[in-house]
Amino acid sequence: MPSLDQLLALAAKSKKPLPWYGLAMEYRSLGRADEAVATFAKVHEIDPGYVPAYFMCAQVYAERGDVEQARAELEAGLARARAAGDGHAEAEMRELLETLA
Questions:
Q1: Who's near 36: CB < 8 A, 6+ residues apart?
Q2: Is residue 3 part of a domain?
């Protein structure tokens, strides 16, 4: 498992979403929610069609009690999942959205 420093170095060199997504997930696992959310936003910037980032970012928002931001993230993710034909991601996001209602 790469260290945070290694993930930071990989992401800094990349214009692809996966290293940034990995970094966001590491921030999340370390309990660094603000940095996780900011890094998920970077994933969205690099590739708005990278669907997993919306679900995971919404979970971070929900965990810290920011329900409105979680809903907004899920709505954006649902649109991207539909556009990509990713029914599995769409179902997961819809399920999470229903728990936030």
A1: 24, 25, 27, 28, 57, 60
A2: no
Q: Determine the Cα–Cα distance for residues 44 and 50; give it in Å rounded to an integer.
A: 7
In a domain, 21, yes or no: yes
Please state the domain count of the chain. 1
**What's the pTM value of the predicted model, to 2 decimals?**
0.93
pLDDT band at residue 3 under the 50/70/90 scheme? confident
